[in-house]
Amino acid sequence: PTGPGLMALKAYGNKRDDNEPGIIRALEQAFCTVYPLDRPLDLLVGRMTPEGPRCYLLEVKKPGVGRLTKDQREFIKTWRGHFAVVTSEAEALEAVGIKP
Fold it and tell me: What is the pLDDT of residues 37-94, one digit of tens each?
């Protein structure tokens, strides 16, 4: 797929994690809408569930390497919605309620 998520990756000048395109592709193949964000976290994911539409914020990190920045930690303290840190396609799918 070449949905809005993969196309939008080119629009950002900041460094993206190498595993992010695969995560976006997996989410889009699972019928999610994905928009890369510049900050505070990496991805805004929308999906329709039996309970209605849901939105998720995901931060993509390299396995065993990435840590949340100070700004991200501060944002999470005040964020009242869902967020997750993911390192793989399976973790991303699970974070939005899809069994990989």
Answer: 988 899 999 999 999 999 999 999 999 888 899 999 999 999 999 999 999 999 999 9
Which stretch of DSSP H or E encloses residue 5?
A: helix 4-8
> How many angstroms separate the first and last alpha carbons of the chain?
18
**DSSP assignments along 21-86, one per residue:** HHHHHHHHHTT-EEEE-SSSSSEEEEEEETTEEEEEEEEE--TTT----HHHHHHHHH--S-EEEE
In the beta sheet, which residues pair with residue 25?
Answer: none
In contact, 48 and 21? CB cutoff 8 Å? no
* Global pTM value: 0.77
Give me the residue label for tokens 């890369």. 36
Cα distance between residue 11 and residue 88, in whole Å = 22
Instruction: State the DSSP H helix or E strand holding residue 4, giving kind and residue range, or none if neither.
Output: helix 4-8
